[in-house]
Amino acid sequence: MELSVIQADGGEGRTSVEVSDRAFGAQFNEALVHQVVTAYAAGARAGTRAQKNRSAVSGGGGKPWRQKGSGRARAGTRRSPLWRGGGKVFPASTQNFSQKVNRKMYRSALRSILSELIRQDRIVVLDEFDVSEPKTKMLVQRLDGLGAREALIVHESPSDNLWLAARNLPGVYVIDAATVDPVSLVSSEKVLCTVKALKALEERVQ
Q: What percent of the chain has pLDDT over 70?
């Protein structure tokens, strides 16, 4: 399969790059993509919420009043869930939301997503992409020239200038080709990818 390569500096003429049909021409497996994306998003959950039951709440060691004779309802502790300041009956606890996805499924899902993005013309392959200074304005001009004001920029080795120029732009994200994930790909309207990054992705998903 051949993909057109655009000159990022706006120069005339286009070249092409040969890529594997297995990596970028796969059928879209919606069920698999959904499973992998859901698992990836679940793994990002902190799962650190926690509440206290009656044994974890501080205090409440002494009996508030004697068992009989006061006219009030009997009570053994001030930390009963019925009392203000008491523990919860069924408290939330820390939880691990991660789901197991084996390597073969993960790579297959990435192939499926990348292939579908190419079919939808949402991947733009560039000969190179960088900015000479860490200026947001410079990056905006380059993105406007490509007609992609919001995009995921996949680079084989992002420079500090590119990271700094992009971090203040809503909808623009820079990611290393070695760490591209399914969620970033499916949630991006446009994916700008350098030739070297494309080759790195191809090697990753084979």
A: 97
Residue 129 contacts residue 192 (beta carbons within 8 Å):
yes
Q: Which helix (H) or strand (E) holds 152?
A: strand 151-155
Would the CA dihedral through 25, 26, 28, 33 be positive or negative?
negative
CA–CA gap between residue 157 and residue 151 (Å, rounded): 17
75-122 per-position pLDDT tens digit: 999 999 999 999 999 999 999 999 999 999 999 999 999 999 999 999
What the chain holds in terms of domains, given with CATH numbers, is 2-44+100-205 (3.40.1370.10)
End-to-end CA distance of the chain: 15
**20 C-beta neighbours (distance < 10 Å), count:** 15
Rounded distance, CA 54 to CA 36, Å?
39
Question: In sequence order, which residues have a C-beta less than 8 Å from that of residue 147 and are 6 or more positions away?
Answer: none
Reduce the secondary structure of 31-89 to three states and give it as a string: HHHHHHHHHHHHHCCCCCCCCCCCCCCCCCCCCCCCCCCCCCCCCCCCCCCCCCCCCCC
Rounded Cα–Cα distance for residues 56 and 92 (Å): 13
Q: What is the pTM of this model?
A: 0.81
The pLDDT of residue 90: 96
